[in-house]
Amino acid sequence: VQLQASGGGLVQPGGSLRLSCAASGSIFSINVMGWYRQAPGKQRELVAVLGSNSRTNYADSVEGRFTISRDNAKNTVYLQMNSLKPEDTAVYYCNALAANGFSSWGQGTLVTVSS
Known about the structure:
By secondary structure, the chain is mostly beta strands. 0% of the residues lie in helices and 56% in strands.
């Protein structure tokens, strides 16, 4: 599975951004799609995941502000981020987890929340 993330950029606190992750290759094998982020000097952390059964899970820090969704026709997963805070600044990575446990990562897209 190949993943191409896009949509990052500079936004003011309180603003919104939508990240996209386009998947190609062995898409049929994907069981879970997710977004992770890594801030400077910190470990990569889970932001949101979306299972093939449409169940979602969010980090406590983004619950109610971020929404993960997918467009099956476009093989794309989105992360709608609202009410952004400076602490949301990070490189955001999309991830695809296959049923056999194989994990694929996108290249990362930088989100900077600053006035």
